[in-house]
Design goal:
This protein is of the alpha/beta class. Strands 1, 3, 4, 5, 6, 7, 8, 9, 10, 11 and 12 form an eleven-stranded mixed beta sheet that branches. The chain has nine helices and 13 strands. It has a single domain, classed as Glycosidases (TIM Barrel). About 25% of the residues lie in helices and about 15% in strands. It starts with 6 loop residues before the first strand and ends with a strand.
């Protein structure tokens, strides 16, 4: 059995080997136990506050799925420690994995599922996507769809703003930023260096980099790693820059001593193979842990048919997978809630990937982007809590259950142009509600029941009582 994973800072990271000549290069039922835990947690909060109430409703008969639980184990210790990105947003890949035998029918069923890893909400690490591309008093590039941040039209290079964001993250149970990165000369990269990395309280949070591959790799490559060595050399050069600029910062996220890098849209990479990962690590001089943004719709809904999923020899191309954003505008219904969309569209795909690979889910609290014709997804606290509970109980492969910690991504902290942000707004429609919901879930200690399937009756409701300062 592999040793339990640890989250560490720079002082436990592996030694950097300097290179003399580097290559230039459906809805889940809520769990009854949460009501007691959450009520106890919230009743001991501060005394001077305004109260907000919201309910968690049980799912309907046709969509309800039940789960089994597993014992709690400790995975995480933490003692040591404005360019616009492209998104899918359009029609899905026409191909699909529907006709492919994935050799396991259970992981897309909505009956009882055998889970292979311990689960307790307190053992999860939450990572929120962070965008440092904002310019003070100049937020007009795409608009914010009727909402604006509580801090006003801030600049991402402002140290005070960064420090306030860190305090918000701590309040909301966010453990790490996943920071959008396009290239070393991009204004957003410079703003992150000048703002967040100078924050006096940065020791309160970890960060890792979101490698925006569609913009970071040379345009002429178009994600094709068979195009000579251009793509591979460029990626290695960027990882060497990461090594020299970020990896040895005390707050950079390491898992088992390995610096973590999140790569956006690996599903569009062509002719990429596992040996290239070893070449990258050899040239960088570090054992990188790459988390690949791969699962989506069409042929990418299953690791067996996806680009850069499971190879013919049965091994995955990448060690770990996730999805940045499962929003696809042709699939959205008018007036739909984010939770209903995610349970209908994303959950079956999550189950396929989590059964066969190391997969870390993301929650989508809400979505309302600037692109014409893209229907919004309404957010609410009860829906976000339902996503957190359900996605936390996804299955995990038995042979990987102790190698990696329990990670869950949040899309996003401050992507205001796509309207997925949980950063408090000045209009008060959401305020701190979505941010605090993550903290409520994390602190509740809820776990799946190992005694058997647990479901709530249709009429039962759990009243969560949350105060806001």
């Amino acid at each position: 059995m592999a040793a339990a994973a640890t989250i560490v800072g720079d002082n436990m990271a592996p030694e950097t080997r300097e290179l003399s000549s580097p290559r230039s290069l459906q809805r889940s039922a809520a769990y009854p136990l949460i009501s007691i835990a959450v009520m106890v947690l919230l009743m001991v909060s501060q005394t001077n506050a305004k109260w907000s109430y919201f309910s968690i409703r049980s799912s309907s008969d046709e969509n309800r799925r039940s789960t089994k639980s597993y014992d709690v184990d400790s995975y995480i210790t933490n003692d040591n420690i404005p360019e616009q990105k492209s998104i899918d947003g359009g029609a899905d890949d026409s191909s699909s994995s529907d006709d492919v035998d994935d050799d396991d029918d259970n992981y897309i069923s909505y009956g009882a599922m055998e889970l292979h890893a311990p689960f307790n909400s307190k053992e999860f690490m939450f990572l929120a996507f962070y965008y440092p591309w904002y310019i003070r008093d100049d937020w007009n590039k795409h608009g914010t769809q009727g909402h604006s941040p509580l801090l006003g039209a801030y600049g991402s290079d402002e140290i005070e703003t960064a420090e306030q964001h860190i305090e918000m993250a701590v309040r909301g149970g966010i453990d790490a930023w996943v920071v959008s990165w396009w290239n070393q000369d991009a204004p957003s990269a410079i703003k992150f260096l000048d703002g967040m990395m100078q924050a006096r309280n940065i020791d309160k949070i970890k960060f890792t980099m979101l490698y925006e591959s569609k913009g970071a790799l040379p345009e002429e490559v178009d994600g094709d790693f068979a195009n000579g060595t251009l793509a591979l050399d460029a990626f290695i050069e960027d990882m060497i820059y990461f090594r020299d600029t970020y990896f040895h910062h005390p707050s950079y996220l390491h898992i088992n001593g390995r610096p973590v890098v999140y790569i956006y849209l690996t599903r569009y990479w062509k002719n990429f193979d596992g040996w290239m990962l070893e070449t990258i690590k050899e040239n960088v001089g570090l054992d990188l842990l790459i988390i690949a943004d791969n699962p989506f719709y069409g042929k990418n809904d299953s690791p067996h048919t996806a680009n850069n999923g499971i190879k013919p020899d049965g091994k995955p191309v990448f060690e770990a997978y996730t999805s940045y954003n499962m929003y696809s505008w042709p699939r959205v219904n008018e007036g739909e809630r984010a939770v209903d969309y995610m349970f209908r569209e994303a959950l079956p795909i999550y189950e396929k990937w989590s059964k066969k690979t190391v997969f870390f889910p993301h929650v989508l609290p809400k979505y309302h982007d600037f692109r014409e014709g893209h229907l919004p997804l309404k957010g609410d606290a009860e829906g976000l809590l339902a996503q957190l509970q359900t996605f936390a109980c996804l299955p995990r492969p038995e042979d990987n259950k102790n190698e990696f910690p329990n990670l869950m991504f949040v899309t996003s902290f401050n992507e205001w142009w796509e309207g997925s942000s949980i950063e408090p707004d000045s209009e008060g429609e959401y305020g701190y509600t979505l941010l605090d919901t993550i903290k409520v879930f994390k602190d509740s200690g809820v776990q799946c029941s190992k005694e058997g399937d647990k479901e709530m009756a249709d009429s039962s409701q759990v009243l969560l009582r949350r105060r806001f300062t």
